[in-house]
Inverse folding.
């Protein structure tokens, strides 16, 4: 009923505007897909050839013909899931501490974490690279995952969310004899699922799309993530002589992201609308 | 996590000498992963992949493990050097070698050349200059590449600029302007196709080439560039005139310019040796605008001496501990690559070895006789100047701004000088 009422508010003009907006948003995606289904040779100098057949899957076959593509897919999956799990655990614990516990230097420490938001990753990339070299962590999964666990935004996000949960819940649980861990795990975490989902989506997307750190840390091709691997697979002047292949790579790399969006679209929309943070 | 760590640590126990080779040129394992027939391979990626497969097949005691990096691969190489885990062999543009050689990060290769029976006297002059610095040779030169005038001969014929089946190219700037006006009047299309947007190499190549032709010393020492000179202003003014009179295409990036050329939208596209293969394919495909209507030549002499800015691909050996077997394998790889230089130059690049220039097979390749002079007129940038990759970006950006009128010529050249000198001032 509520959905019907919301739909009822749209005038025909509104619908038209919405459709035009959707078409504008979709056009580059459809264009990318069509280009990916064309023979590279046909597209040299004639990208409009994508508007008509014949279409082919040869560019996708070429992607899978590279024996390392599935390995890169696995690497990206491991790194993105590893970072997501790590960030959720660390940010939730830190957020709980900053939001609901009283301890010395809490405010100072929180400000210290927030300062991390203002430090661009490029500013620390050299020392970070040196550190990982000393630890012999380059070309390894820990080397790819660990830097992503430094997530001041996640701590800020979870702290803010947890501050919105009434403290009376903790007090009532304590009266019933619950420990701090029990309160965190059985009461607070279930209440923060919307925020956890949002943070998970953003972390996963960030890790999946990351290029710079994997480029200089994973220097052996069997440890590339998908973004680095696909870039390495491109020949010079791929924009012209390999346009179809380039677009097939773009489509292929975005499929997992697309799936994540489909599954978590409710959380993403809520996060974008700002309702996830109370 | 344990599973992940196990996945990342696989030991090699096959008894072979492993050489870790890092290259760009893309990945094409789907088409050439198992091929050793070099003669049948096409394109940079296909040929290099097949050649390495062939080397592995012919040297059963050696295994070349290939790491393909995103072009140009230098951020990764620098990271590997910093982590003290560089590869054994790396593709490198000759202009970049000095960045690494100056710090001892790549080895002089005279020892490998001797072991491989390769005499530097056999290198072409452009190739020899490109890999020689600080009194030593730091790489096996692999090719010479530079700018060429790719010509649509059908439009040239329509413009009345063909003589004896060959396009008439200008010998002076005034001739070029006159021919360009005639071309534009008779065909309604621009004489030059230009990629002045997002392609700093295009503008830098033009500026460097014609300043060199005028006898300019671009780098008076290792820490300074000189562009804002009467010669620099003269060259930039010429290209500004091309744009002001709309004798060249406007607002095109590289893909746009390539598309325009193969679609017959202009007379000449000044771009590199690397496009010969693609354009020749168009020229042999019935129905395409370039079908039987394609020719290619080095940049014409418009001023002074007929010289041209060139660079080249080479193989360097990063400094690290190696076994005698690995050093022997690298020497054998050098020998193999030198022996197969002809196969590589089928890509369109010019050979790094004089013998290949004289090889009848090379001369029989399409257009090679026309572009061969590039190997003798080619001039690399001075090898004692570091950061040439970054410098080309700065110079090209400012030169394009001058050519297109976004900045005044003295302002753009002065800013290019300032930015480059600032960069070089930070170099040890």
């Amino acid at each position: 009923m509520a959905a019907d009422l919301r739909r009822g508010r749209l005038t025909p003009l509104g619908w038209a505007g919405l459709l035009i907006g959707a078409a504008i948003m979709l056009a580059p995606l459809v264009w990318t897909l069509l280009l990916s289904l064309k023979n590279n040779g046909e597209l040299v100098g004639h990208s409009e050839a994508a508007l008509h057949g014949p279409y082919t899957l040869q560019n996708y076959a070429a992607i899978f013909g590279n024996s390392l593509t599935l390995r890169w897919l696995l690497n990206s999956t491991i790194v993105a899931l590893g970072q997501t799990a790590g960030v959720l655990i660390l940010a939730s614990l830190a957020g709980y501490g900053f939001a609901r516990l009283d301890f010395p230097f809490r405010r100072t420490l929180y400000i210290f974490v927030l300062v991390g938001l203002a430090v661009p990753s490029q500013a620390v990339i050299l020392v970070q690279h040196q550190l990982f070299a000393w630890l012999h962590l380059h070309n390894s999964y820990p080397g790819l995952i660990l830097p992503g666990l430094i997530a001041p935004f996640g701590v800020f996000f979870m702290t803010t969310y947890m501050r919105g949960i009434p403290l009376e819940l903790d007090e009532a649980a304590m009266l019933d004899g619950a420990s701090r861990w029990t309160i965190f795990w059985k009461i607070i975490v279930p209440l923060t699922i919307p925020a956890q989902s949002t943070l998970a989506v953003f972390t996963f997307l960030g890790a999946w799309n990351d290029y710079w750190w994997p480029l200089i840390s994973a220097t052996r091709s069997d440890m590339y993530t998908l973004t680095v691997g696909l870039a390495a697979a491109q020949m010079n002047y791929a924009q012209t002589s390999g346009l179809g292949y380039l677009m097939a790579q773009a489509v292929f790399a975005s499929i997992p992201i697309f799936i994540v969006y489909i599954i978590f679209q409710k959380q993403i929309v809520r996060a974008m609308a700002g309702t996830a943070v109370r | 996590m344990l599973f992940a760590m196990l996945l990342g640590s696989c030991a090699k126990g096959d008894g072979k000498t492993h050489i870790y080779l890092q290259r760009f040129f893309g990945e094409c394992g789907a088409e050439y992963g198992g091929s050793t027939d070099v003669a049948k391979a096409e394109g940079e990626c296909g040929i290099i992949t097949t050649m390495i497969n062939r080397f592995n097949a012919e040297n059963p005691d050696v295994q070349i493990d290939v790491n393909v990096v995103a072009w140009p691969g230098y951020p990764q190489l620098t990271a590997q050097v910093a982590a003290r885990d560089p590869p054994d062999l790396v593709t490198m543009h000759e202009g970049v070698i000095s960045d690494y050689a100056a710090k001892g990060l790549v080895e002089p290769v005279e020892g490998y050349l001797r072991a491989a029976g390769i005499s530097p006297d056999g290198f072409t002059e452009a190739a020899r200059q490109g890999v020689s610095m600080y009194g030593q040779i730091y790489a096996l030169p692999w090719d010479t590449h530079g700018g060429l005038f790719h010509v649509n001969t059908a439009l040239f014929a329509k413009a009345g600029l063909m003589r004896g089946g060959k396009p008439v190219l200008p010998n002076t700037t005034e001739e070029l302007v006159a021919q360009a006006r005639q071309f534009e009047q008779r065909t309604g299309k621009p004489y030059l196709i230009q990629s002045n947007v997002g392609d700093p190499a295009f503008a830098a190549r033009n500026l460097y080439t014609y300043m060199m032709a005028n006898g300019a010393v671009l780098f008076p020492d290792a820490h300074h560039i000189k562009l804002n000179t009467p010669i620099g202003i003269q060259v930039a003014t010429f290209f500004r005139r091309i744009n002001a009179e709309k004798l060249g295409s406007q607002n095109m990036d590289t893909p746009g310019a390539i598309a325009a050329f193969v679609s017959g939208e202009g007379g000449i596209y000044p771009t590199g040796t690397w496009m010969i293969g693609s354009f020749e394919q168009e020229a042999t495909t019935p129905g395409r605008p370039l079908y039987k209507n394609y020719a290619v030549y080095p940049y014409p002499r418009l001023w002074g001496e007929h010289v041209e800015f060139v660079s080249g691909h080479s193989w360097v050996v990063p400094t690290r501990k190696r076994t005698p077997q690995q050093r022997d394998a690298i020497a054998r790889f050098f020998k193999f690559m030198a022996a197969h230089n002809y196969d590589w130059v089928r890509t369109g690049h010019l050979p790094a070895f004089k013998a290949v220039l004289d090889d009848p097979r090379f001369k029989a390749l399409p257009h090679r006789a026309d572009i061969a002079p590039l190997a003798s007129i080619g001039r690399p940038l001075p090898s004692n100047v570091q950061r040439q990759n970054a410098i080309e970006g700065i110079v090209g950006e400012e030169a394009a701004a001058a050519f297109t009128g976004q900045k005044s010529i003295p302002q753009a050249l002065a800013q290019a000088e300032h930015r480059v000198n600032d960069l070089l001032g930070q170099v040890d």
Notes: Residues 51 and 340 of chain B are 8 Å apart (CA to CA). Confidence is low (pLDDT under 50) at residues 1-11 of chain B. The longest helix of chain B spans residues 388-404. Chain B touches chain A through 47 residues (CB under 8 Å).
